[in-house]
Amino acid sequence: MNWTKSYAGTHGSLNGVTYGNDTFIVVGNNGDLFQNIDPPTYTITYNGNGSTGGTVPTDSHSYAHNATVTVLGDTGGLVKTGSTFAGWNTAANGSGTSYVEGATFTMAAANVTLYAQWTADPTYTVTYNGNGSTGGTVPTDSKTYAHNATVTVLGDPGSLAKTGSTFAGWNTAANGSGTSYVGGATFAMAAANVTLYAQWTADPTYTVTYNGNGSTGGTVPTDSNPYAQHATVTVLGNTGSLVKTGSTFAGWNTVANGSGTSYVEGATFTMAAANVTLYAQWTADPTYTVTYNGNGSTGGTVPTDSNPYAQHATVTVLGNSGSLVKTGSTFAGWNTSANGSGTSYVEGATFTMAAANVTLYAQWTADPTYTVTYNGNGSTGGTVPTDSHSYVQHATVTVLGDTGSLAKTGSTFAGWNTAANGSGTSYVEGATFTMAAANVTLYAQWTADPTYTVTYNGNGSTGGIVPTDSNPYAHHATVTVLGDTGGLVKTGSTFAGWNTAANGSGTSYVEGATFTMAAANVTLYAQWTASSGGSSGGHPTPPDDSKVISENGELSLPAGKTGKVSLGDAITVDIPANATDKELKLTIEKITGTQVLLTDEDVLASPIFEILKNFSENFSKPVTLTFKFDPTKLSGDQRAAVFYYDEAQKKWVEVGGVVKGNEITVEVTHFTKYAVMVVGQKPTINFSDISEHWAKASIKQAVSSGIVTGYEDGTFKPDKTVTRAEFAVMLMNALKTQGAGAALTFTDAAKIGSWSQKAVAQAVQAGIIHGYEDGTFRPAGEITRAEMASMIAGALGKYSEANATTATSFADDKDIPAWAKAAVAYIKQASIVQGKGDNQFAPGDHATRAEAVTVLLNMLAQKSK
User: Fold this and answer.
1) Burial 97-108 (b: 16+ CB within 10 A, else e)
2) Which CATH number, 1.10.246, 1.10.287, 2.60.40, 1.10.10, labels domain 205-284?
3) For 70-79, 481-490, 829-838, which range has the lowest pLDDT when averaged over its residues?
4) Sign, Cα dihedral of 835, 836, 839, 841
5) What's CA 759's distance to the chain center, in Å?
6) CA 557, CA 525: separation in Å to the nearest integer?
7) What is the pTM of this model?
8) Does domain 287-366 have CATH number 2.60.120?
9) Where is this region: Disordered (predicted)?
């Protein structure tokens, strides 16, 4: 302590007492006054008061008496197990003055200790609830838990049980809407007691169902009980009087075919963890058969009754469903004995089945017989055929031909009729009819022969009179050529006979010559040779090498003469001089209904023609046949060849021939049926997606003809739509167009693939393709039916926009664009494209690959006509 000398009276305290401002005055030995100039200070100490963690705060200040002290907070995170910090107190037991953080007090003249105050934490419990359990013991947790303490959930140590249910853990809500826990799970304790409720899952139940297993009557029993696994099931009996035709009830089985476990009424079994079906078991009753026997039938089929019949079952007798016949007899029902001595039955009759098989024998009544008589019906020559057979009713009669060369003046035999005047039923040779229950007379029918005229033409004569032949001539009648009976003259010329052509290119005749009348009128033109002395009406003989020509498929040729006969431009027959020493009568006929003459391997490139002559001997010199054929039928290495039909072998025989363009020529020495056929390996066509398609045949033909190909995956994709570029390629392949085509000036020419450029160019050059108004071609655009019609009509030279108002007769005619109407009208008339349902053309629809090839083949067929 520091002291200093002072004088009395300086301060208001003497003899060592405090005077003020804590100044302590002391009187020295000499009576001097001394002053204390350093007053005392005090400390604040903080005490954890039993804390188990954290750090007590430290106040390093020294406080003078009466100084103001600010209380510190719990800056060190003090903790005490099971307690919560509650401030400070000047006494450890809290009996002193309490302070909270930030409070102030005046410092006394002594050190101060502030003790931490602790409030004991509340604790909570966990209770387990069986939640309806019917057995076992709920677990007990005797611990108390502070807030946020970790709780470990107990399991089911007491083997809790609840009837019909399985323990499924715990939940904070009885109805399971809270938080679920399983044994061993943990959770933080909330500030409240917790109850955990046992959770239960209802055990599954199973059913027992009864199945009639083919029963035909009665009712299957019903068991409506739900069964838990291991429950005992008592099997029901046949409570609903189940029946099955032809069988007897024999209990139940877990498998329909009886291979499972069998049960009888009242038996029991333990329910498995699955539904059970018990199937009725049936023991087949003995059955018997009914067999039908034709009993000498000569045709038809005996009926079959495949039903098994139990004893006492009702049997309905069948009719003659297989059209049984017996020559000379009529079916008269059934009998249990072959000789008719048993019980007789007719169709629909019934009888009760005995305990034995039954055979029913057909019964027959002898038929009356009838005759067929042929009547010449006014014939003037020949002999009527005779049919010596006797026919029973329903027998098949084959009509005879004109075996006796019947003739009637001015008429041609035209078959037979059941009435003389032709008002009955008509028959030709080989026709058949079913004999009625009466004799039949067949009357020859006659068609009056058409007659033709022979007219003489002066052919430029300047005088005289042309002869007149007023006779009517029947076909094949012999005509005798008249002479120049009227003194015909022509200035500067001499009469030189007659010719069937004005320019002399036909057949020449002299007076008295004869020819066979064709089925057409004939005009004979006077022939004239130039003369220096005028006409004298002479009769020069025509040259011997004059050729007889016919274009109607019929030719009459005198012996030794040359001749030429054709049927349009489809076939021509050239006969050299002296090919035969007989008068030749020749006919050419185009055969229809050719399918019976062809196999699947035969491919025609021309029609089939039958060429006939009036004698059986072969020609002594070869005769030349020239056919026009369709080159589009050929593809790859295939070629065309002429074939004739061998009537004995019933097959086609190759003759050969020389091809020039679309014609083929061959020499033969006999006549029969001839045709041009395709020779060579046909490409294998076996697409995987056309076997059931409506266009299968057309697709194969189009591929064979090189019009179109399939895809690498072995498909054809018949229903895939066709683009404009694809159709152009198909069309040009069909037409077999040659040349590079025109330069492509379409604005989108660059989009036309290299594979289709040539075809498009060819179509443009041919005037088939014109593109759109904006200058594009649009190769990838799907072609419409209207566009396809326009291109096909153009390919056939029928394209025209001139008649845009042409009516097409389609129901949707108003929807067909004006530019396509003429084309659509043409292709419909030509049967190239037909409409869809309800006579709709559907001009805007897109064409499929199958439709495209079908239309192209129709186009080629029209083009070849």
Assistant:
1) ebbeeeeebebe
2) 2.60.40
3) 829-838
4) negative
5) 32
6) 19
7) 0.30
8) no
9) 531-551
